[in-house]
Amino acid sequence: MSASRRERSSTLQALSDDLATAVEHAAASVVAVNARPRIASSGVHWRPGVVVTASHTVRRDDDVTVTLRDGRTRTAALAGRDGATDIAVLKIDGSGTPAASFAEHGSPKVGHVVLQVGRTGAGGASATFGVIGAILEPWRTWRGAEIAQLMQLDMTIHDGFSGSPLVDTQGNVVGLNTSALARGVALALPLSVVNRVVDALLAKGRIARGYLGVGLQAVDLPAALTSKLDPPRSTGLIVLSVDASGPGGRGGLQLGDVIVAVDRQPVTDVRDVLPVLAPERVGSTVDVSLMRGGAPQTVSVSIAERPAR
Amino acid sequence: MSFAAELATVAERLRRATVQVRGRSPGTGSGIVWRPRLIVTNAHVATGRSVVIESADGAVLKARLAASDRQRDLAVLEADTEGLLPAELAASDALKVGALVFAVGNPLGLSGAVTTGIVYSLARTRRGAPLILADVRLLPGNSGGPLGDAAGRVVGVNTMILRGLAAAIPSDVVERFLRDLRLAA
What we know:
The structure holds two protein chains of two kinds.
Chain A: H1 3-8, H2 11-27, E1 30-34, E2 41-47, E3 50-54, E4 64-67, E5 73-82, E6 87-91, E7 113-118, E8 126-136, E9 139-140, E10 146-147, E11 150-153, E12 165-167, E13 173-178, E14 187-190, H3 191-204, E15 210-211, E16 214-220, H4 223-226, E17 235-242, H5 247-251, E18 258-262, E19 265-266, E20 285-292, E21 295-302, E22 304-305
Antiparallel strand pairs in A: 1-2, 1-4, 2-3, 3-6, 4-5, 5-6, 7-8, 7-12, 8-11, 9-10, 11-14, 12-13, 13-14, 15-22, 16-17, 17-18, 18-19, 18-20, 20-21
Chain B: H1 3-16, E1 18-22, E2 29-35, E3 38-41, E4 50-54, E5 60-69, E6 74-78, E7 100-105, E8 113-124, E9 130-135, E10 146-148, E11 154-162, E12 165-170, H2 171-180
């Protein structure tokens, strides 16, 4: 073996080969999604016949196609979408094209080396490289979904990479990339969240999210009230706006009410209300305890489904 | 050899073959000692008939512009570079998306700055010429400098920044250019 051959079988060369192999492996199940003007986005052949992509890149509900690794194009039907997590599910004829393989053990950790593998047309795949910069837990998107284990990436999400898979150095999928959940920040949704949303979208085409129809803000409670509450606490949530035809308005909530408990749980921060807005709570009735004119009251509110935007 | 030592060796190998190029236009670019007495750079870097180059160890030399092709954005300089070790070259057609690459250049007047990343895609220009896009941070002074592989061999000439990506002319295209000029070895 010549000197230069020996040099090439170095750790660095091995890492380079591993990364290229990981990209090739992952790219087999990455498709281009043609559902908006100009540049296509990427999608993952997640399960046989099921393509997952970023909802914000699917700008039309009909006439959607995907381009496979070999350049062939297939028609795709939109099975459902969830703006809150930026996930859309497409159904395709998945025969002859492999579905993704997933990282099986261990959850991603800060500092793990990862790749984004995208496809934006009939040409070859594209890839970027970086590390997981932070894992945000739990994190609430501006569209109202609460996401556990959301990954912040020390990478750029280039044009067309929303909906592409985040893969490990073996080429196994660890998440779904999106640039739309936080402006200017590269994020990836973890597998648990994507799988849960995909299951729901395949079953019902949408995800029902709870709706109270009131605007709330944390406020200090007068000292006289603080000691009357069990457990004692010094903040509540003041009602700043009421959708008169919404569940809160119909249940009797009024401007200026200070809510101190929801569903018998103390609330001191707006986030404390989120548990009753989870999809499985839609249609259920909760007790809302409040102070009105210094006197305690309790009203019943029936959680509705959030209107589509 | 440790991983860190390997990185340093690869960077050093590329650095030794990289020169600063000062043409007529303000600012400096970079060039690659492609083989003895022959330096490859971008046409937009080597402006003017005579060009001054500075080697990694600080030697300043005059170079003659032997050829320039603005369409391909490639130029060839001839200089008395006896003391300079030419780059080790690798065929760019073996390059794969995801492979590690290193860029060396003289951005902001810094000599021999190294950045690293991976091959983003193997693309084509509007004219249909092959182009390497790399997920590597480049600055203006990187123009004309080498894009190297994990063994420190030159696979491309960094040419421009495209939507935040490094765009490099593949080594195979450079070899064809030199053959067309009858400057091939």
